[in-house]
Amino acid sequence: MNDTASIVSRVWSFCHTLRDDGVSYGDYLEQLTYLLFLKMADEYGRIYKKDVGIPEEYSWESLKSRKGADLEAHYITLLRSLGKQKGMIGQIFVKSQNQIQDPAKLFKIIHMIDAENWVMMGADVKGDIYEGLLEKNAEDVKSGAGQYFTPRSLIRAMVECVRPEPLKAIADPACGTGGFFLAAYDFLVREYSLDKEQKKFLKNQTFFGNEIVANTRRLALMNCFLHNIGEITGESAISPNDALIADTGDRYDYVLTNPPFGKKSSITITNGLGKQEKEDLRYNRQDFWATTSNKQLNFVQHVRTMLKTNGQAAVVVPDNVLFEGGAGETVRRKLLDNTDLHTILRLPTGIFYAQGVKANVIFFDNKPAAKEPWTREVWFYDFRTNIHFTKKKNLMTYQDLKDFIACYNPGNRHQRKETWSEDNPDGRWRRFTYDEIIARDKTSLDIFWIRDESLADLDNLPDPDVLAEEIVENLEAGAQSFRRIMESINGR
User: Which of 136, 151, 209, 293 has the CA that lies 20 to 30 A from 103?
Assistant: First the structure.
């Protein structure tokens, strides 16, 4: 652990130096990704006597042997050339650029990385180092990287509830930096004594994802690779394609995902006057229940398509998916009828790096076609009312979610007990029947029942910083709602 902390400390000391040169956390992390991959490829090739697919003229040794302007020029050429390679190498280096303009600092980073033996280092140690870097990057609000970073405590809780099994496929159509894959990997390794066949399947055939942002995709690939997922000489398991464009025909046992925030999908076009403007992007797919530009509703529909019969899904969605009319109501009704939508976790505010996000996790199991609705009842856990977290002083931890996991009862979710009752109106775990939900206006799933103490007890208000953060969250959410209304009025 001390060695890990020492390496992290050294890695970040360079970041602070580079910040003075205008290099952001994200840019620094990208350069570390390129250099780490090259160093590990060099070690892997020497230790296992294998050709890792990197031309000798662009090897790790070719970087180590240069200094000054010669190093900078060679590094730029190396990045451009490796971006044209096939497989994982090409995906790691695609559209790569040198962001470190001072050759002396680039030289120091290269030799800092060269001082460690990365391949022989434990996957958990390498993983902890890189995950720490990703979280630090997510905290850098200006970069916007936080939108790709789901709280690891929430991811772990979702995986604990779904409980994936060996020799089954797991997908994430908006995988960001790969957090769900790593949590599922850790769960499978921890909970099962895997044999040789299962370990091979886990490494190479378990995980499949999509990530359209090139920089984020390379971070995901590196994150997975450092956690022992995928081969250095293999193909990328993370596609650069927009998952919503079409049904690929591939089906998975589990889908765990937090699709990107933001309501509408859009494309930029050039109009008749030569000016660029945004146009709503509607995915016209036969397998979708409703045609809409609402990105979140499209992801929910796509996730259902991706599942095998009896496949399981856990999806983070914003509040509007639970109450919006029109296409939203259609999707909710179809979801209730065609899948077993059994659990909804109402998430607290202040847990995401993106401001103004009010979100939930919906858990549903896919089912074969049937005359009767598959959903008999939906269990709700209100983890929002009277609960306050912030990203700095009061972080949400895995321990905070253990009561929800216990109520979910992953071992046998058909044996659950409500904590809510007439005698305990503040119980957070409550069941609603299919008929009760269908009778609600627009089949709304935005259900809450616990009294908000801050509205009734002025002597028991949260700390000022928590209140301030909640005010910002509500203002951001309100601004987004007004923006959508303006877009609707203006036809944009």
Answer: 136
